[in-house]
Amino acid sequence: MQDIRLRIGTAILLCLSAFISIPGAIAVFLWWLAFSGHVFQVIRMRIIMPVAVMLAFFSAVLALSGGDGISYFIRMMVIVLIGFWVYAEQKSGEFLRFGVWLLGERWGFELGMLADMGLQTMHLLIRDFDQIRLAESLKGFRPGWKTIVPGGVVLVSGALMRAEHTAELLAARGYRNGGSLSPVFITPAKDILLSLTALCVLIIALISVSEFFILYG
Fold first, then answer.
1. What's the pLDDT score for residue 107?
2. What CA dihedral angle connects 198, 200, 205 and 211, to 10 degrees?
C-alpha cells in the first residue's frame, strides 16, 4: 500500500480483528497470505523464529496458569505478521509525513521523525546482525550461546554510537522542536480496496463475538 494513512488504518483494523477472536485472527491470517505480498520474505527473516519461540513460551506460561495459551499464541502471532507487513512496506520519510498530517508541524513532526529514526535504526541493526553472522562464518565460528553476548555488545554499542552522532548532527544544525512540512500522499484505488477488505475482516471478527454472546445468553 502506497498511502501510509490507509496502511496504518488497515493495520489497526487487522490487529483489532485478530485480538478480538480466533475467527478474526484466522481471517486476518488469510488476508495477510492473500494481500501482503511478503510471505516468503517473512519466512526468510531470521527474527521470526525467536519471536515465535518467545510467544510460545508466554503462551505455555498462560496455559499452565489456567488461561487459553493456544488462543493467545495464534492471535499474537498473527498480529506480529501484520507488524512485519507494515515494516516491510515502510519507506523513508513516510511516518514524518503521516505525523505532520495527523498532529501538525510541532508534535506531529517530532513523533514522525522519531518513528522514522527508530525504523532506520532497526534497518541498520538487521544489517549489522547479518554482517556479524557473516564474519563469524568466515572465521569458522558456529552460532551459539558463546557468540550471542559479543554480538549483542557490538550491536548495542553501534546503535549508541549512531544515536550520539545523530544527536550531535541535529544540535549542530540548530534543531529544537517541530518543523515545516507539506505532506503529499498518493492514494491508488488498490489501497482503498485493501482497506475495505480489512474492514470486512473486522466485521467477521465482531459477528463471531456477537454470536458467542447470543449463544451464551
1. 84
2. 180
Q: Which has the closest alpha carbon to 36: 91, 74, 85?
A: 85
Chain segment 103-125, per-residue pLDDT in tens: 888 888 888 888 888 878 777 77
* Backbone torsion region of residue 142, taken as left when φ is above 0, otherwise alpha when ψ lies between -120 and 50, otherwise beta: beta
Tell which phi-psi region holds residue 183, choosing left (phi > 0), alpha (psi between -120 and 50) or beta: beta
| pLDDT at position 99 over 70 | yes
How far from each other are the two terminal CA atoms of the chain, in whole angstroms?
41
b (16+ CB within 10 A) / e for 111-143: bbbebbbebeeeeebeebbeebeeebeeeeeee
With a CB cutoff of 8 Å and minimum separation 6, the contacts of 216 are none
Instruction: Determine if residue 66 is left, alpha or beta; phi over 0 gives left, psi from -120 to 50 gives alpha, anything else beta.
Output: left
Q: What is the pTM of this model?
A: 0.75
Find how far residue 87's CA is from the centre of its chain.
5
In degrees, rounded to 5, the angle at the alpha carbon of residue 86 between the alpha carbons of residues 24 and 161 is 135
Query: What cell was used for 209?
Result: 463475538
Share of the chain above pLDDT 70, in %: 82
Residue ranges of domains in the chain: 4-216
Q: What is the pLDDT of residues 2-39, one digit of tens each?
A: 899 999 999 999 999 999 888 899 999 999 988 887 66
Rounded Cα distance, 151 and 135, in Å: 11
